[in-house]
Amino acid sequence: MGESAPWGIDVTVVVPTYNTERFLDEALTSAEQNSRVNLEILAINDGSTDGSLAIMRAHERLDPRVRVIDKPNEGYGASVNRGFREARGTYLAILEPDDWVEPHMYDDLFEYAMSFDLKCPPDVVKSPYWRIWMPTTPMERRLYCPYYHRVNPAHQPFRVEECPRMVQHHPSIWSALYRRGFIAEKDIRLKEAPGAGWVDNPFWYETMLQADTIVYLDRPYYCYREDLPGSSSANRVLKLSFERWNDMCDVCDRLGEDDPGVRRALATVAFRYAGEAVARAGLEDEELKGLMAQMFSRVDEDVILSLDNVSPQLRALALRLSGREAPRISPAGYALGLVREFGYALSCNGVGFAAAQTRLYLERRKSQDKRSEGFAAEADKS
To answer: What InterPro entries does the annotation carry (predicted)?
Structure first.
């Protein structure tokens, strides 16, 4: 893959597909609703056993921009990598087949990238996304993602160190464009694992940390069906979170990334995964407890103590698990952070959702803190 696109294609959209016939037509149709850029859509059939391939072929017959690649089942990472290898666009994008995009997402993001007076187009073009909450139920609702209005670099383009919040939240690798030449020059590929395998996590850190020029357009286009039954998020084995976190930490170590903001963002992700595991009785599972201990041993003590967005009990647990003393941690900063989070949720998604989310968050936190305190009591006895 080179920098130029001699085929005259601006954006290649890769759609890695395995048994998603229910939503695939909607996904492909949404991508086809881009009319200003020269678009290529690579529909990758990853050995589907349902009607997905027939849906792809139907789109290929009707729209010359669609090309089907039919291959044996190898998993999400291998499918995206195949699409990236065969792509001809200046930029690459990923569309998951159970999601959809608003009309003109790729038109707008490509034109935004081209609006900067740069010798070489930006490496990454990023945008927020829509959370489709409680998908396919009567309660389905569209919500702003957690970093909408919160990515505010002092200038554009920027590097991730200038705005580390970019790597603090859900990786959302699909609400972005990646310059094809950049991906090739840095030899960036997705980890190839069975199924979906949460391989988006290390890919996200790999791209963001290696990008010299990132631009951000604070408008959501991508519609992400959150925790859809049967998805990799809904079916995830808890230990996979810690494996992928270690992959992300390995990326930071390999690239010599020592920026305090990026390391704090990575630690915040660690606590998000650990908090979920603790709430689901992870401390009663010796394997999970060991994985958490190993993960937190890779986080500096000063970073753990500084994270006011994490409860004092969970921070103390992290220190104890990793064999360190746990001083008394003031709850004041954490309490203030909760108030700020409620205000943010209120301003973005309304009072009803903010109240519901706060209630669920506090219930989950109560469970985490109770288990963390129980672990601390046992540790003190020993």
So the answer is: Glyco_trans_2-like, Nucleotide-diphossugar_trans
Query: How far, in Å, are 45, 65, 101 from residue 61 at the CA level?
Result: 16, 10, 21
Whether residue 374 sits in one domain with residue 301: yes
Q: How many domains does the chain have?
A: 2
Q: Please name the residues in contact with 323: beta carbons below 8 A apart, sequence gap of 6 or more.
A: 293, 297
Structure tokens at 206: 């790999």
Q: What is the token pair recorded at 352? A: 């009803």
Task: Give Dmax (Cα) for the chain.
Answer: 70
**Would residue 333 count as lying in a domain?**
no
The mean pLDDT of the chain is 90
At 49-79, the pLDDT tens digits run 999 999 999 999 999 999 999 999 999 999 9
Q: Do residues 262 and 195 share a domain? A: no
How far apart are alpha carbons 144 and 149 in whole angstroms? Answer: 9
Report yes or no: 236 and 182 within 8 Å, Cβ to Cβ.
no
Give yes or no: residues 87 and 210 share one domain: yes
Q: How far apart are CA 56 and CA 68, in angstroms?
A: 7
Residue 334 in any domain: the answer is no
Q: Which of 204, 235, 266 is the last residue of a domain?
A: 235
Choosing from 217, 235, 253, the residue where a domain stops is 235
- Cβ atoms of 93 and 12 closer than 8 Å: yes
- Which residues lie closer than 8 Å to 253 by C-beta, 6 or more apart? none
Q: Which amino acid is at 136?
A: T
What is the pTM (predicted TM-score) of this model? Answer: 0.91
For 98, which DSSP code?
A: T
- What is the torsional sign of CA 174, 175, 181, 185? negative
Same domain flag for 210 and 297:
no
The closest alpha carbon to 2, from 90, 111, 75, belongs to: 90
How far apart, in whole angstroms, are the C-alpha atoms of residue 18 and residue 9?
A: 26
